[in-house]
Design goal:
Blueprint (H helix, E strand, L loop, with lengths): L3 E6 L6 E7 L2 E5 L1 E4 L11 H6 L5 E4 H6 L3 H6 L3 H5 L5 E4 L2 H6 L4 E4 L2 E5 L6 E4 L1 H11 L3 E3 L11 H24 L9 E6 L5 H11 L11 E4 L8 H12 L7 E4 L5 H9 L4 E4 L1 H7 L2 E4 L2 E4 L20 H5 L2 H9 L3 H28 L2 H12 L5
Parallel strand pairs: 4-14, 5-6, 6-10, 10-11, 11-12, 12-13, 13-14
Antiparallel strand pairs: 1-2, 2-3, 7-8, 8-9, 15-16
Helix pairs in contact: 6-7, 7-8, 10-15, 11-14, 13-14, 14-15
């Protein structure tokens, strides 16, 4: 059963307004998903995640499989109970993490043999074992096991890689049909579109995955993988724009691992509904904040005496309402954990507020004009 509801499409671009219904709550799209790789968004409590108005968070099967182990999460009653988060959760299958191991993995038609980055122990991921792990974790949205196609890749290399993804997606959907969810609520399955930067392969992937399930049922949603892997930004936009022309209009569309605030707005205009990225939380910990006036580096010496100036004068997050740039810089230089928490609160609040504004402008059919101005402002370097 398709649980994505398309409410409106812009008359001036492919920007869409929708609702993705899950058993842990409805998700208003377009949306950004904070990354909680190991069942935690680094530095924040579940209440703080709620406070920045996150609708859904992402966790990772590879990391949870290795530590603490998915059987333990199943014993806890699923990832929501395990981490104390009552909203929707999406799990990435771990395909990208296994791919990134490079020297520690060996790809076979049956799956991928790899060594843990933690202790060097040997493991094997197959479509069935990855689906079983995601059944045990119990996320609301679970992802196909895929091979991430590197950039650059020849058409032959990309096709070889895509064939693994198509085979594994078909096997995953067959396994899921025979093994229902175990935690008492529904899990939606998203297929992943690979094919490198080769448009004909991307189109083939969409068409074949749409027929991959038992009886040609297709997945519940479509994700674009293999983007933001080193290709030029304009190429990423071009591939996303091309692919959304062929994706079913009544299914959610998700670009994995992207990106900056302006990346998100550009992708929304090209028909994308969902994005995730570690950038807002990772950059916050490393001293970079996104603001309504541009990019701010709060470690800089020039902020040391800005006692009356918040990170963003136009932001109403907990950090900006209560603390100055001088205080945040002090915390960072003192090595205090609070610096990372406050900075992460701001960046995630900023991303999610931007998505809220995007939805309002799509509803008013003013998204394109607003987005163009925002993209110019957001990329300013405030030092």
């Amino acid at each position: 059963m398709n649980r994505f509801e398309l409410l409106k499409t812009s008359t001036k671009s492919k920007a869409r307004l929708g609702i993705l219904h899950t058993d842990h709550g409805d998700i208003q799209t377009p949306i950004f998903m904070p990354v909680g790789t190991e069942a935690t968004v680094k530095g924040l409590t579940p209440q703080q995640i709620h406070d920045v108005h996150a609708q859904i968070i992402l966790a990772n099967t590879y990391h949870l499989y290795l530590r603490p182990g998915t059987p333990l999460i199943a014993k806890a009653g699923g990832v929501h109970k395990f981490m104390g988060w009552d909203g929707p959760v999406l799990t990435d299958s771990g395909g990208f993490q296994v791919w990134s191991l490079k020297e520690l993995r060996k790809i076979k038609p049956e799956g991928v043999e790899f060594r843990s980055h933690l202790d060097g122990s040997k493991h094997f991921f197959s479509p069935a074992s990855v689906m079983n792990a995601q059944r045990e974790i119990g996320a609301d949205i679970i992802m196909a096991f895929d091979e991430c196609t590197p950039f650059p890749s020849t058409a032959k290399e990309a096709e070889h890689s895509l064939n693994f993804t198509l085979k594994w997606t078909r096997e995953a959907m067959e396994w899921l049909a025979e093994h229902p969810p175990i935690h008492g609520y529904d899990q939606q399955f998203f297929g992943i579109i690979q094919g490198g930067m080769h448009k004909n392969l991307r189109k083939e992937a969409i068409e074949r995955i749409a027929e991959a399930g038992p009886g040609g049922t297709g997945p519940d949603g479509y994700a674009l993988g293999g983007l933001s892997v080193g290709e030029p930004t304009e190429t990423m936009y071009e591939i996303a724009d091309y692919c959304t022309d062929y994706m079913p209009k009544d299914h959610a569309r998700y670009v994995m691992g992207v990106g900056t605030p302006w990346n998100l707005l550009e992708l929304i205009s090209r028909g994308v509904d969902m994005c995730d990225c570690v950038m807002p939380s990772r950059n916050a910990r490393n001293g970079m904040l996104f603001t309504s006036e541009g990019v701010l580096r709060y470690k800089a010496a020039r902020h040391a005496e800005e006692l009356d100036k918040p990170v963003d004068p136009n932001c109403d997050c907990y950090c900006c309402k209560n603390f100055s740039r001088a205080y945040l810089r002090h915390l960072h230089h003192a090595g205090e954990m609070l610096a990372m928490t406050l900075a992460t609160i701001h960046n995630l609040h900023f991303y999610l507020h931007l998505m809220d504004e995007a939805r309002k402008h799509i509803a008013d059919d003013t998204f394109e004009e607003w987005s163009k101005v925002q993209c110019e402002i957001l990329q300013r370097d405030l030092q």
